[in-house]
Structure to design on (388 residues):
Protein backbone atom coordinates (compact mmCIF):
# COMPACT_ATOMS: atom_id res chain seq x y z
CA UNK A 1 0.00 0.00 0.00
CA UNK A 2 1.30 3.40 -0.94
CA UNK A 3 1.72 5.74 2.03
CA UNK A 4 1.20 9.20 0.58
CA UNK A 5 -0.44 10.33 -2.65
CA UNK A 6 1.20 13.25 -4.41
CA UNK A 7 -0.01 15.73 -7.01
CA UNK A 8 2.69 15.82 -9.67
CA UNK A 9 1.01 17.62 -12.55
CA UNK A 10 -1.67 20.26 -13.00
CA UNK A 11 -3.21 21.88 -16.06
CA UNK A 12 -6.15 24.08 -16.98
CA UNK A 13 -7.57 25.70 -20.09
CA UNK A 14 -8.84 29.25 -19.99
CA UNK A 15 -12.44 29.33 -18.81
CA UNK A 16 -14.54 31.18 -21.35
CA UNK A 17 -18.02 31.89 -22.65
CA UNK A 18 -17.28 31.75 -26.37
CA UNK A 19 -19.52 29.22 -28.04
CA UNK A 20 -17.75 26.35 -29.84
CA UNK A 21 -14.30 27.85 -29.35
CA UNK A 22 -13.02 24.28 -28.87
CA UNK A 23 -14.63 20.85 -28.89
CA UNK A 24 -14.98 18.94 -25.66
CA UNK A 25 -12.12 16.57 -26.63
CA UNK A 26 -9.80 19.43 -27.58
CA UNK A 27 -10.44 21.23 -24.28
CA UNK A 28 -9.66 18.06 -22.32
CA UNK A 29 -6.56 17.43 -24.44
CA UNK A 30 -5.26 20.95 -23.71
CA UNK A 31 -5.65 20.57 -19.93
CA UNK A 32 -4.20 17.04 -20.02
CA UNK A 33 -1.15 18.03 -22.12
CA UNK A 34 -0.37 20.92 -19.77
CA UNK A 35 -0.57 18.60 -16.74
CA UNK A 36 1.47 15.87 -18.45
CA UNK A 37 4.24 18.37 -19.36
CA UNK A 38 4.13 19.66 -15.80
CA UNK A 39 4.56 16.13 -14.40
CA UNK A 40 7.66 15.00 -16.36
CA UNK A 41 5.83 11.76 -17.13
CA UNK A 42 5.35 10.04 -20.48
CA UNK A 43 1.80 9.19 -21.62
CA UNK A 44 2.52 5.48 -21.08
CA UNK A 45 3.10 6.15 -17.36
CA UNK A 46 -0.57 7.06 -16.82
CA UNK A 47 -2.32 3.85 -15.81
CA UNK A 48 -5.85 5.13 -15.18
CA UNK A 49 -8.10 7.99 -16.31
CA UNK A 50 -10.99 9.60 -14.45
CA UNK A 51 -13.27 11.96 -16.37
CA UNK A 52 -15.39 14.30 -14.22
CA UNK A 53 -18.39 16.18 -15.56
CA UNK A 54 -22.09 16.80 -14.99
CA UNK A 55 -24.60 15.31 -17.38
CA UNK A 56 -26.79 17.02 -19.98
CA UNK A 57 -24.95 20.30 -20.66
CA UNK A 58 -23.53 18.90 -23.89
CA UNK A 59 -24.72 16.15 -26.15
CA UNK A 60 -21.97 13.59 -25.53
CA UNK A 61 -23.12 10.57 -23.56
CA UNK A 62 -20.42 8.56 -21.74
CA UNK A 63 -17.80 11.30 -22.33
CA UNK A 64 -15.00 9.27 -20.73
CA UNK A 65 -14.89 7.00 -23.78
CA UNK A 66 -14.20 9.56 -26.58
CA UNK A 67 -11.89 11.49 -24.25
CA UNK A 68 -9.81 8.38 -23.41
CA UNK A 69 -9.54 7.62 -27.14
CA UNK A 70 -8.57 11.20 -28.04
CA UNK A 71 -5.89 11.30 -25.33
CA UNK A 72 -4.48 7.96 -26.52
CA UNK A 73 -5.23 6.30 -23.19
CA UNK A 74 -7.27 3.31 -24.38
CA UNK A 75 -7.13 0.42 -23.43
CA UNK A 76 -6.33 1.63 -19.90
CA UNK A 77 -9.11 1.69 -17.29
CA UNK A 78 -11.32 4.77 -17.53
CA UNK A 79 -13.92 5.91 -15.00
CA UNK A 80 -16.63 8.60 -15.22
CA UNK A 81 -17.42 10.64 -12.10
CA UNK A 82 -20.46 12.91 -11.94
CA UNK A 83 -21.11 14.80 -8.70
CA UNK A 84 -22.68 18.16 -9.54
CA UNK A 85 -20.23 21.08 -9.23
CA UNK A 86 -17.99 18.98 -6.96
CA UNK A 87 -17.29 16.41 -9.70
CA UNK A 88 -13.54 16.93 -10.10
CA UNK A 89 -12.72 16.99 -6.38
CA UNK A 90 -14.80 13.81 -6.12
CA UNK A 91 -12.72 12.47 -9.04
CA UNK A 92 -9.57 13.24 -7.04
CA UNK A 93 -11.07 11.39 -4.07
CA UNK A 94 -11.77 8.37 -6.30
CA UNK A 95 -8.26 8.56 -7.83
CA UNK A 96 -6.75 8.82 -4.34
CA UNK A 97 -8.60 5.62 -3.33
CA UNK A 98 -7.60 3.83 -6.56
CA UNK A 99 -3.93 4.49 -5.83
CA UNK A 100 -4.22 3.89 -2.10
CA UNK A 101 -5.77 0.49 -2.80
CA UNK A 102 -2.68 -0.53 -4.77
CA UNK A 103 -4.64 -0.99 -8.00
CA UNK A 104 -3.04 2.01 -9.73
CA UNK A 105 0.25 3.95 -9.63
CA UNK A 106 -0.54 7.11 -11.60
CA UNK A 107 -4.03 8.43 -12.34
CA UNK A 108 -5.04 11.46 -14.43
CA UNK A 109 -8.20 13.24 -13.24
CA UNK A 110 -9.76 15.39 -15.94
CA UNK A 111 -12.71 17.68 -15.26
CA UNK A 112 -14.58 19.43 -18.03
CA UNK A 113 -17.80 21.20 -18.87
CA UNK A 114 -19.11 22.64 -22.06
CA UNK A 115 -22.05 24.89 -21.17
CA UNK A 116 -22.13 27.42 -24.00
CA UNK A 117 -24.19 25.17 -26.27
CA UNK A 118 -27.17 26.14 -24.10
CA UNK A 119 -28.67 29.47 -22.98
CA UNK A 120 -28.39 30.51 -19.32
CA UNK A 121 -32.07 29.64 -18.81
CA UNK A 122 -31.61 26.17 -20.33
CA UNK A 123 -28.60 25.53 -18.07
CA UNK A 124 -30.55 26.57 -14.96
CA UNK A 125 -33.45 24.34 -15.95
CA UNK A 126 -31.08 21.34 -16.11
CA UNK A 127 -29.15 22.38 -13.02
CA UNK A 128 -32.18 22.64 -10.76
CA UNK A 129 -33.39 19.20 -11.73
CA UNK A 130 -30.57 18.09 -9.39
CA UNK A 131 -32.78 19.33 -6.54
CA UNK A 132 -35.99 17.78 -5.22
CA UNK A 133 -37.80 17.16 -8.49
CA UNK A 134 -41.05 16.19 -6.82
CA UNK A 135 -41.63 18.95 -4.27
CA UNK A 136 -39.30 21.90 -4.90
CA UNK A 137 -37.94 22.18 -8.46
CA UNK A 138 -41.42 22.52 -10.07
CA UNK A 139 -41.88 25.77 -8.15
CA UNK A 140 -38.90 27.29 -9.97
CA UNK A 141 -36.41 27.12 -7.11
CA UNK A 142 -33.07 27.55 -8.88
CA UNK A 143 -29.51 27.92 -7.64
CA UNK A 144 -29.60 31.73 -7.25
CA UNK A 145 -32.88 31.43 -5.30
CA UNK A 146 -31.53 28.94 -2.77
CA UNK A 147 -28.36 30.96 -2.25
CA UNK A 148 -30.54 34.06 -1.90
CA UNK A 149 -32.39 32.23 0.91
CA UNK A 150 -29.02 31.50 2.54
CA UNK A 151 -28.10 35.19 2.20
CA UNK A 152 -31.44 36.38 3.64
CA UNK A 153 -31.13 34.07 6.62
CA UNK A 154 -27.50 35.12 7.20
CA UNK A 155 -28.51 38.79 7.09
CA UNK A 156 -31.42 38.12 9.44
CA UNK A 157 -29.42 36.09 12.00
CA UNK A 158 -26.08 37.92 11.93
CA UNK A 159 -26.68 41.33 10.40
CA UNK A 160 -24.58 40.57 7.32
CA UNK A 161 -25.03 43.38 4.79
CA UNK A 162 -25.46 43.55 1.02
CA UNK A 163 -22.26 45.61 0.91
CA UNK A 164 -20.34 42.82 2.65
CA UNK A 165 -21.61 40.38 0.03
CA UNK A 166 -20.43 42.78 -2.68
CA UNK A 167 -16.99 43.03 -1.04
CA UNK A 168 -16.39 39.35 -1.84
CA UNK A 169 -16.79 40.08 -5.56
CA UNK A 170 -14.61 43.17 -5.24
CA UNK A 171 -11.77 41.11 -3.70
CA UNK A 172 -12.09 38.28 -6.19
CA UNK A 173 -12.16 40.72 -9.09
CA UNK A 174 -8.94 42.32 -7.86
CA UNK A 175 -7.19 38.97 -8.37
CA UNK A 176 -9.38 37.70 -11.22
CA UNK A 177 -8.48 40.78 -13.26
CA UNK A 178 -4.88 39.51 -13.19
CA UNK A 179 -5.65 35.88 -14.07
CA UNK A 180 -5.43 35.40 -17.81
CA UNK A 181 -7.40 32.14 -17.57
CA UNK A 182 -10.43 33.89 -16.01
CA UNK A 183 -13.58 34.62 -18.04
CA UNK A 184 -14.34 37.93 -16.26
CA UNK A 185 -11.31 40.25 -16.00
CA UNK A 186 -13.02 43.47 -14.93
CA UNK A 187 -12.04 44.94 -11.56
CA UNK A 188 -15.26 46.10 -9.89
CA UNK A 189 -16.29 48.31 -6.97
CA UNK A 190 -18.92 47.73 -4.27
CA UNK A 191 -21.05 50.36 -6.00
CA UNK A 192 -20.88 48.52 -9.33
CA UNK A 193 -21.90 45.21 -7.72
CA UNK A 194 -24.77 46.92 -5.87
CA UNK A 195 -26.01 48.53 -9.08
CA UNK A 196 -25.92 45.34 -11.17
CA UNK A 197 -29.36 43.84 -11.93
CA UNK A 198 -31.05 41.90 -9.13
CA UNK A 199 -31.17 38.15 -9.89
CA UNK A 200 -32.76 36.91 -6.63
CA UNK A 201 -32.65 39.47 -3.83
CA UNK A 202 -30.22 40.20 -2.22
CA UNK A 203 -28.07 38.62 -4.95
CA UNK A 204 -27.31 40.75 -7.98
CA UNK A 205 -25.69 39.71 -11.25
CA UNK A 206 -22.19 40.38 -9.92
CA UNK A 207 -22.90 38.34 -6.77
CA UNK A 208 -23.25 35.30 -9.06
CA UNK A 209 -20.79 33.09 -10.88
CA UNK A 210 -21.51 32.40 -14.56
CA UNK A 211 -21.68 29.29 -16.71
CA UNK A 212 -18.58 28.73 -18.84
CA UNK A 213 -16.62 26.19 -20.88
CA UNK A 214 -13.32 24.79 -19.67
CA UNK A 215 -11.26 21.81 -18.58
CA UNK A 216 -8.77 21.02 -15.84
CA UNK A 217 -6.43 18.13 -15.12
CA UNK A 218 -4.71 16.85 -11.96
CA UNK A 219 -2.20 13.98 -12.10
CA UNK A 220 -1.91 11.88 -8.94
CA UNK A 221 0.88 9.40 -8.19
CA UNK A 222 1.92 7.06 -5.44
CA UNK A 223 4.68 8.34 -3.17
CA UNK A 224 7.58 6.44 -4.74
CA UNK A 225 6.83 7.77 -8.23
CA UNK A 226 5.92 11.26 -7.02
CA UNK A 227 9.31 11.62 -5.33
CA UNK A 228 11.15 10.24 -8.35
CA UNK A 229 9.63 12.56 -10.97
CA UNK A 230 9.11 15.73 -8.97
CA UNK A 231 11.24 17.92 -6.68
CA UNK A 232 8.07 19.54 -5.40
CA UNK A 233 5.30 16.95 -5.12
CA UNK A 234 2.30 18.38 -3.30
CA UNK A 235 0.86 15.84 -0.88
CA UNK A 236 -2.81 15.18 -0.21
CA UNK A 237 -2.72 15.46 3.57
CA UNK A 238 -6.41 15.35 4.33
CA UNK A 239 -9.50 14.55 2.27
CA UNK A 240 -13.06 14.93 3.57
CA UNK A 241 -16.46 14.56 1.98
CA UNK A 242 -20.03 14.99 3.18
CA UNK A 243 -23.57 15.26 1.87
CA UNK A 244 -26.70 17.20 2.77
CA UNK A 245 -30.39 16.49 2.21
CA UNK A 246 -31.55 16.78 -1.38
CA UNK A 247 -34.65 18.78 -0.45
CA UNK A 248 -34.08 22.23 0.98
CA UNK A 249 -37.16 21.83 3.18
CA UNK A 250 -35.36 19.11 5.15
CA UNK A 251 -32.29 21.22 5.96
CA UNK A 252 -31.58 21.99 9.60
CA UNK A 253 -29.94 25.33 8.87
CA UNK A 254 -29.95 27.96 6.14
CA UNK A 255 -26.65 29.55 7.16
CA UNK A 256 -24.43 26.67 6.05
CA UNK A 257 -23.96 24.32 3.11
CA UNK A 258 -22.95 21.62 5.60
CA UNK A 259 -19.32 21.70 4.42
CA UNK A 260 -18.11 21.89 8.01
CA UNK A 261 -18.49 18.11 8.21
CA UNK A 262 -16.14 17.53 5.28
CA UNK A 263 -13.77 20.12 6.75
CA UNK A 264 -13.67 18.37 10.13
CA UNK A 265 -12.68 15.09 8.45
CA UNK A 266 -9.99 16.74 6.33
CA UNK A 267 -8.45 18.69 9.25
CA UNK A 268 -8.40 15.53 11.38
CA UNK A 269 -6.74 13.42 8.69
CA UNK A 270 -4.16 16.14 7.96
CA UNK A 271 -3.52 16.79 11.65
CA UNK A 272 -3.90 20.54 11.17
CA UNK A 273 -6.39 23.23 12.19
CA UNK A 274 -7.80 26.27 10.36
CA UNK A 275 -5.06 28.53 11.75
CA UNK A 276 -2.45 26.43 9.87
CA UNK A 277 -3.99 27.18 6.45
CA UNK A 278 -1.83 29.59 4.44
CA UNK A 279 -4.02 29.87 1.34
CA UNK A 280 -7.47 28.58 0.34
CA UNK A 281 -9.70 28.14 -2.67
CA UNK A 282 -13.35 28.05 -1.63
CA UNK A 283 -16.55 27.50 -3.60
CA UNK A 284 -17.79 31.05 -4.21
CA UNK A 285 -20.58 30.24 -6.66
CA UNK A 286 -22.36 33.21 -5.06
CA UNK A 287 -20.84 35.84 -2.76
CA UNK A 288 -22.79 34.49 0.23
CA UNK A 289 -21.24 31.05 -0.42
CA UNK A 290 -17.75 32.43 0.20
CA UNK A 291 -18.90 34.10 3.43
CA UNK A 292 -20.48 30.85 4.67
CA UNK A 293 -17.31 28.97 3.62
CA UNK A 294 -15.10 31.18 5.85
CA UNK A 295 -17.31 30.10 8.75
CA UNK A 296 -17.81 26.43 7.85
CA UNK A 297 -14.06 26.00 7.34
CA UNK A 298 -13.33 27.60 10.73
CA UNK A 299 -11.50 30.67 9.36
CA UNK A 300 -13.81 32.69 11.61
CA UNK A 301 -16.79 32.00 13.89
CA UNK A 302 -20.29 31.37 12.49
CA UNK A 303 -21.86 34.72 11.75
CA UNK A 304 -18.56 36.60 11.42
CA UNK A 305 -17.96 35.95 7.70
CA UNK A 306 -19.19 39.42 6.75
CA UNK A 307 -16.73 41.01 9.14
CA UNK A 308 -13.94 38.70 7.87
CA UNK A 309 -14.25 40.09 4.32
CA UNK A 310 -14.88 43.66 5.49
CA UNK A 311 -11.68 43.63 7.55
CA UNK A 312 -9.69 42.36 4.56
CA UNK A 313 -8.76 39.05 6.23
CA UNK A 314 -9.19 37.04 3.00
CA UNK A 315 -6.89 39.28 0.92
CA UNK A 316 -3.18 38.49 0.50
CA UNK A 317 -1.69 39.94 3.68
CA UNK A 318 -4.82 39.07 5.71
CA UNK A 319 -5.31 36.05 7.99
CA UNK A 320 -6.04 33.55 5.18
CA UNK A 321 -5.90 34.61 1.53
CA UNK A 322 -8.95 33.14 -0.20
CA UNK A 323 -9.65 32.79 -3.93
CA UNK A 324 -6.68 34.88 -4.93
CA UNK A 325 -7.04 33.64 -8.52
CA UNK A 326 -10.50 35.26 -8.91
CA UNK A 327 -12.56 32.33 -7.63
CA UNK A 328 -15.60 31.00 -9.45
CA UNK A 329 -17.07 34.51 -9.46
CA UNK A 330 -14.44 35.76 -11.90
CA UNK A 331 -12.96 32.63 -13.48
CA UNK A 332 -16.44 31.39 -14.43
CA UNK A 333 -17.81 28.01 -13.40
CA UNK A 334 -17.59 25.15 -15.93
CA UNK A 335 -18.96 22.88 -13.23
CA UNK A 336 -17.07 19.63 -13.89
CA UNK A 337 -13.74 21.46 -14.26
CA UNK A 338 -13.95 23.79 -11.26
CA UNK A 339 -12.53 21.58 -8.48
CA UNK A 340 -9.52 20.68 -10.64
CA UNK A 341 -8.90 24.38 -11.28
CA UNK A 342 -9.00 25.07 -7.53
CA UNK A 343 -6.49 22.24 -6.94
CA UNK A 344 -4.25 23.64 -9.68
CA UNK A 345 -4.18 27.05 -8.00
CA UNK A 346 -3.33 25.66 -4.56
CA UNK A 347 -0.69 23.29 -6.01
CA UNK A 348 1.02 26.21 -7.77
CA UNK A 349 0.87 28.32 -4.60
CA UNK A 350 2.44 25.58 -2.47
CA UNK A 351 5.19 24.97 -5.01
CA UNK A 352 6.08 28.66 -4.89
CA UNK A 353 4.70 29.06 -8.41
CA UNK A 354 1.71 31.30 -7.65
CA UNK A 355 3.39 33.78 -10.01
CA UNK A 356 2.22 31.54 -12.88
CA UNK A 357 -1.30 32.88 -12.19
CA UNK A 358 0.16 36.37 -11.74
CA UNK A 359 3.06 37.64 -9.61
CA UNK A 360 0.58 39.75 -7.60
CA UNK A 361 -1.48 36.59 -6.87
CA UNK A 362 1.40 34.73 -5.22
CA UNK A 363 1.11 33.90 -1.50
CA UNK A 364 4.76 33.79 -0.55
CA UNK A 365 5.97 30.93 1.62
CA UNK A 366 2.63 29.07 1.64
CA UNK A 367 3.07 25.55 3.01
CA UNK A 368 -0.47 24.30 3.66
CA UNK A 369 -3.44 25.00 1.43
CA UNK A 370 -7.11 24.08 1.39
CA UNK A 371 -9.59 23.37 -1.41
CA UNK A 372 -13.35 23.55 -0.74
CA UNK A 373 -15.69 22.47 -3.53
CA UNK A 374 -19.48 22.25 -3.16
CA UNK A 375 -21.95 20.43 -5.40
CA UNK A 376 -25.47 21.81 -5.70
CA UNK A 377 -26.54 23.75 -2.63
CA UNK A 378 -24.45 21.55 -0.34
CA UNK A 379 -25.71 18.22 -1.67
CA UNK A 380 -22.03 17.29 -1.85
CA UNK A 381 -19.08 18.99 -0.12
CA UNK A 382 -15.44 18.08 -0.59
CA UNK A 383 -12.55 19.56 1.38
CA UNK A 384 -8.97 18.66 0.49
CA UNK A 385 -5.91 19.81 2.42
CA UNK A 386 -2.67 19.92 0.51
CA UNK A 387 0.86 20.46 1.73
CA UNK A 388 4.49 20.49 0.68
C1 LIG B 1 -26.59 35.01 -12.90
C2 LIG B 1 -27.24 34.37 -14.11
C3 LIG B 1 -28.67 33.95 -13.76
C4 LIG B 1 -27.26 35.37 -15.24
O1 LIG B 1 -27.78 34.68 -16.32
P1 LIG B 1 -28.34 35.43 -17.62
O2 LIG B 1 -29.28 36.50 -17.19
O3 LIG B 1 -28.82 34.36 -18.54
O4 LIG B 1 -27.07 36.15 -18.10
P2 LIG B 1 -26.26 35.90 -19.41
O5 LIG B 1 -25.42 34.69 -19.23
O6 LIG B 1 -27.14 35.99 -20.61
O7 LIG B 1 -25.35 37.19 -19.37
C5 LIG B 1 -25.90 38.51 -19.41
C6 LIG B 1 -24.76 39.48 -19.28
O8 LIG B 1 -24.25 39.46 -17.94
C7 LIG B 1 -22.88 39.09 -17.95
N1 LIG B 1 -22.66 38.19 -16.82
C8 LIG B 1 -23.31 37.05 -16.57
N2 LIG B 1 -22.85 36.50 -15.42
C9 LIG B 1 -21.87 37.31 -15.00
C10 LIG B 1 -20.97 37.27 -13.93
N3 LIG B 1 -21.00 36.29 -13.03
N4 LIG B 1 -20.07 38.26 -13.80
C11 LIG B 1 -20.02 39.28 -14.69
N5 LIG B 1 -20.84 39.37 -15.73
C12 LIG B 1 -21.75 38.39 -15.89
C13 LIG B 1 -22.66 38.39 -19.26
O9 LIG B 1 -21.32 38.50 -19.70
C14 LIG B 1 -23.58 39.16 -20.17
O10 LIG B 1 -22.99 40.38 -20.53
P3 LIG B 1 -23.12 40.96 -22.01
O11 LIG B 1 -24.61 41.13 -22.22
O12 LIG B 1 -22.36 42.23 -21.95
O13 LIG B 1 -22.53 39.91 -22.89
C15 LIG B 1 -26.43 33.11 -14.58
O14 LIG B 1 -25.11 33.50 -14.85
C16 LIG B 1 -26.45 32.03 -13.55
O15 LIG B 1 -27.37 31.22 -13.53
N6 LIG B 1 -25.41 31.94 -12.70
C17 LIG B 1 -25.34 30.93 -11.68
C18 LIG B 1 -24.78 29.64 -12.22
C19 LIG B 1 -24.89 28.56 -11.19
O16 LIG B 1 -25.84 28.48 -10.46
N7 LIG B 1 -23.89 27.69 -11.12
C20 LIG B 1 -23.83 26.64 -10.15
C21 LIG B 1 -23.52 27.20 -8.81
S1 LIG B 1 -23.00 25.96 -7.65
Amino acid sequence: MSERIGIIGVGQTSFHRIRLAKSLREMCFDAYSEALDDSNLAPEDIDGLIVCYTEEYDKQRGPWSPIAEYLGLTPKPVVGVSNYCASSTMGVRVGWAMIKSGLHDVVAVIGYQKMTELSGAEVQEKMIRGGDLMWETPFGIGMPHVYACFANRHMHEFGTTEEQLAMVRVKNSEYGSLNEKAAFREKVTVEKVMKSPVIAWPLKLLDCTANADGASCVILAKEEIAKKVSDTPIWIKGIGSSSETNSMGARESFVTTGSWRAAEQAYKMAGVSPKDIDVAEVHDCFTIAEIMAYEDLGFCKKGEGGKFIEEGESYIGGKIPVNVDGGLLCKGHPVGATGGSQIRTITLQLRGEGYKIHPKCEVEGAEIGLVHNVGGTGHVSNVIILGR
User: Anything to note?
Assistant: The domain at 5-118+211-229 is CATH 3.40.47.10 (Peroxisomal Thiolase; Chain A, domain 1).
